Each structure stands twice: as structure tokens, then as C-alpha cells.
Amino acid sequence: MSSVWDFVWIALLVALAVGQSEDPFAEFDTDETVVIEPDDYDIEVENVVEEPPAPPADIPESDTLDDQVIIEDEDFEGINPSDKPPSGKNELNIVNAPVNMKGHWEDYYLEIIGLIGVFVYALNFYTGKSINNRLANAWFEHHKKLLSDAFCIVGDDGVSKEISEDVLVKESENRFVLWCTGRLGCEGIKIEIKLLRRQDLISVLSQIFKPQSDTITITTYMSPEDMDSVVLAVMPRKGLKRLQQEVQDLAHFATEKKADKFDLPHQLGILAEFSEVSNELLSVPVCKTISENIDVFDSIHFSDYYTGFKISQESQTETERPKPVKRLIFNFVIPGHGKRTKSSIMETTEPLLRMALHMMTRVHKFKLSKENKTKAEKHRIQVEEEYLKQTHAQRQEAAQARRDERKRMEKEKMQELDPEAQRRYEEREYKKSMRRSGPRVKQLKVKTG
Questions:
Q1: Chain-centre distance of CA 409, in angstroms?
Q2: What distance in Å separates the CA atoms of residue 155 and residue 143, rounded to the nearest whole number?
Q3: Could you read off the pLDDT of 90-119 as tens digits, one per residue?
């Protein structure tokens, strides 16, 4: 990529130098006027005498005075009929204005800059696309054996009816997905390789001012019977509070735990529902692996009640109800902030991938104590009740808004009626309101005899 940018800077410097070149019209800046005599050129000027057009022949003669043409002598005063037009050649003064027939490439520097820009964009697109393809394939080839040992099917495309393997699905030029299934304790995993938009020239330029990194996201789909009530998150302290407010399960269940007793780097924080969960799942080998690969580790998030990020009340409708699912989410980053594009850099996530497979087994085998299990069930029932109250209030507000809209439309329609019709309409509405407000009496018919 450095050679591409060297070529871009050289092209821009050449274009600026061209823009400051001498004026191509300087040869026209002269004060001399060359007069060319008519004898130098074979130029003949003919004296053409225009004859008046003949009158139309189909116009009938008329005896009336209005149809006759009267010619007065006053119209031809100062004109001698015997005068003849002058003969001979007119003298022409022709100024020497040479035509610039030769073209200069300096005159098209704007077009040249445009062509260079298109060429650079196309070159960057194909170069960035090939780099992303090479990095994604390198990650898959290096971790293929490890995944094959852990899952029965690695690389199913999810489209064909027959089982396919070793398929790395390309969703875009910088996003690749790998599906794996066939493991005890989970339904399957989805590995997302999210690379930088190296094929986009604007993203490459923004990378200079705001560096970002390639990421690997592993999402484990757990079945209801394979996971107990677990809410745990390990992530950088910098965004811990923000994510706790935005992610629903962390906001409802998790609280920050002290990370002093865990052998973790100081920049990481822990959120968990119970201390029992963090003590059991964050074992010594797990903490050691995270500490040794802190430049690759980003975050982990386990939840049996995962519903994603919070939905604002303005955008949430009465029919929307997030369905809780059980997920294990691992986020890793590729070190180097996108500057290191060698295939060997993709091998740095192997220790963390082994840790992820190990934690899938631990979560599957983990069981809460009876006391914490009862508390966890109460917490989830409270969340359900709170959600039902919120949706009930939203439904009431929506129903009231519909009633107000209906009344407004009825009033507009009533204004178009005549006074007598308006009076009848008001009486009818008054009777309806009285029936609603009055006590309800149930009539019973009793048969006698």
C-alpha cells in the first residue's frame, strides 16, 4: 500500500507543477499589428445589386383607390437615377491573428488529475480487496484444524440442501462469516471476520487520522438446556459503564465486581450477576491466557437473557417484544491497527480461540447453587413484569391517541353539516355518553307458572 501512496503524492506534485507553468497564450501578447495588402491574397469582392422582388402575378387589379400604390417623388429625394454603383475592388485590412494549432498537455491538467484519481481509486479497490481476501483465508487455514477437532461440520454455507464444508462465506469485501456446528453443549458457533475497508479509498484516508483494527467475533448459540442462569462480562473499564447502560441484560442483572482477586490486567473490568459465576468461570488458566494476549483480547459476554441493546421508547412499538436467547460472545482484535497485513498476523488469535472452546465446555457444565438460582428466577420474573407494564402503558397511550384522532375527525365532519344535523348529532352523542356513565343494570326474565 505504501507504493500506491507514493505514486499518488508524485501525481499530485506533477499536477501542481503543471498548474504553475507558463501561460500557453503568451504568444498572442504582442503590440505589433501587421497590415496585409489585398494584393497578397486573391480576394475578390463582387458588387451585388439587389433588384426589388417582382410583384405577385396572382393579385387582381382593383379599381378602388385603396388598392392602388401611389409613389410620391418625395420618397426619392437626393437620389440620382443616373448614378451607378462604384466598380473595382475594395481594400481590406486583415489583421494577422495566427491560430494556435498545436496543443499542449499542460492545458488538460484538470482532466489528468481526474484520470489519476480514478486510476488510484480502482487500484486501491483491487489491492485492498485482495489483501482482505488473503487475510481471511489465512485465518481460516491456520485455525481449520483446531475447529475441525472441536466440531463435526466446519464451514457450512447454510444455503445448499446438502452439507457443505470448508466454505468461508463472503458477505462483503471486508466481512467474512464461518459457520460451525456438531459439538456437545451448543447448537453451533458463528465466526465473523470483520476486516478494515481497505477497498475503500475514503476509509483508507480516515484510517490515517483515526486508526482502527481488524476484529474477530465468535458467537456461540446455546440451547435452553445447555446453559444455566449466567450473566458475565469482561471488557475494558473505559467502556464498562456505557455498555452497562446500553445492553439490556447487563443493565438489569449485572453489577461490577472487584477484579483484584483475579489475575487480570488492570485495564479490564468485570460485570456479573453473582460472584459465584465469576469465581467459577474465570479460572486461573483463563485469566492467564487473557493476560498473555491482552493486545488481542477485547471482551467476552455471557448471558442466558440476551436481548441486545436497549430500544428507545420513541422507536419501540407495541408489537415489539425482544425474545431472550442464550449467547456466548467473544470479541478479539488483530494487533497492529491495520498496518500489519502479513498473513502471519492472523495466527495471534489461536490461544484465545482455544480459550473460547474451553469456556463453552465450562458454561455447559456450570450449575448455580439453589439460593442463587432462586434469586436469578425472581430477577427475570421482575424484568418480565416490568416489560409487560411498559408495553401496557404504551398500548394505552396508542389507544388514547387513536380515540383523540377519531374525535378530531368527527368534529371536522360535523362542521360541514347544517345546524339541524349538528343538533341531532350532539343529542345522539349525549345519549351515548349518558349510557356509558350510568350504572349497568342486568335484566333477568323470570318465568312464572
A1: 40
A2: 12
A3: 666 776 766 655 567 777 888 888 999 999
Determine phi and psi for 318, rounding to 5 degrees.
-70, -20
**Do the Cβ atoms of 30 and 118 come closer than 8 Å?**
no
User: 27 near 139, Cβ under 8 Å?
Assistant: no
Q: For residue 20, which phi and psi values (nearest 5 degrees)?
A: -95, 10
pTM, full prediction: 0.67
**Angle formed by the axes of helices 109-150 and 201-209, to 10°?**
80
Give the phi and the psi of residue 170 in degrees, each rounded to 5.
-100, 105
Q: Answer whether 148's CB lies under 8 Å from 154's CB.
A: yes
C-alpha pair distances (Å), 265 with each of 213, 244, 270, 289, 356: 20, 20, 11, 11, 18
Residue 58: strand pairing partners: none
Angle at which helices 350-365 and 109-150 cross, to 10°: 50
Query: pLDDT tens digit string along 367-392?
Result: 999 999 999 999 889 888 887 887 77
CA quadruple 73, 77, 80, 81: dihedral, nearest 10: -30
Q: Bridge-partner residues for 189, per DSSP? A: 180, 220
Instruction: Output the nine-digit C-alpha cell for 370.
Output: 439453589
In this prediction, the residues of the chain whose per-residue pLDDT falls under 50 are 21-22, 34-36, 38, 40-49, 59, 61-67, 318-319
Residue 273: all three cell numbers together: 450477576
- The pLDDT tens digits for 229-288 are 999 999 998 888 888 888 988 988 989 888 888 888 889 999 999 999 999 999 999 999
Kindly provide the b/e burial profile for residues 396-407, where b requires at least 16 CB atoms within 10 angstroms of the residue's own CB. Answer: eeeeeeeeeeee
Closest C-alpha to 311, from 319, 303, 320? 320
